[in-house]
Amino acid sequence: MWKDKVVIITGSSLGIGKKLAIEIGNKGGKIVLNARNKERLKAFENELKSCGIRAISYSGDISKNEDCVALFNYTISKFNRVDILINNAGIASVGNIEEVKPDVFQKVIDVNLMGSVFMTKAVLPEIKQNRGSIMFIGSIAGIHGLPAYSSYSCSKMALTAFAESLKIELNNTGVHVGLAYLGFTENDPKKTFLDQNGKLVPQPARNKIKQVPVGRVAFRIMKMIEKRKFKSTFTLLGKLNNFLNRINPYLVHQILLSQYQKN
Ligand SMILES: NC(=O)c1ccc[n+]([C@@H]2O[C@H](COP(=O)([O-])OP(=O)(O)OC[C@H]3O[C@@H](n4cnc5c(N)ncnc54)[C@H](OP(=O)(O)O)[C@@H]3O)[C@@H](O)[C@H]2O)c1
Q1: Domains and CATH numbers, the chain
Q2: 140 Cα nearest atom in ligand 1
């Protein structure tokens, strides 16, 4: 299924995107890497090439429409087609709404939501022609709003609406739309998040929380694309959150409230 498929993976110099690039590349896919940090991206492109993986990279900020169009044009100039887009790049900010600066909130929406919208729009005609896939990387934080993560929850919840709208609009076009609700995943040691002032700070280790290995997450995302599955929630906690939120949202609210009050 992956052999010779041209796959754009946004945010693929670290973490889940990086693992997806390795796994899909090992299966014969042609990989298009993207991230903002050019040096780190180029180093990873070279690493993939040294393992015999066909990879190119385009450094750009997906929260800017012109960068998304340029990423698409670069892909066409090098590989001549696009089969699959994985909207993976994402950032989080932490802080209660009273503390978070408005432009920090805006940045999270711009990257996580608008970045996925701009990329989807840029590649859609080509993906339609190739009856390919558009995959969104959501989060269990997008099932019910989380305290101190309101921008992140808003951005991920909005991805559900966008993917649902898209799936209806693309009915009978042969395009697959997928949305994965990820739970806590093993983080890249270089992972960062935005503090309330917009400063990128290292993500502290989440030692007390059970985390899914990044390889397992990449495997499941790939399976969704292979099986052309629409939605999937990856962890038990996520499945429970999803289920309870449907049958008893008050209970979910109470659980989150008690956790919030403890911290
Ligand atoms: N890790 C988890 O526990 C978890 C749980 C649920 C959902 N998710 C979702 O899974 C996805 C990947 O998460 P991750 O933990 O692997 O992230 P990560 O380790 O922080 O890596 C993020 C990647 O995105 C790139 N990036 C960030 N902003 C960008 C922008 N504006 N334009 C282009 N690239 C950008 C980063 O490189 P540069 O900084 O160089 O741009 C990096 O390559 C995200 O959508 C995240 O919300 C993760």
Answers
A1: 6-238 (3.40.50.720)
A2: 6
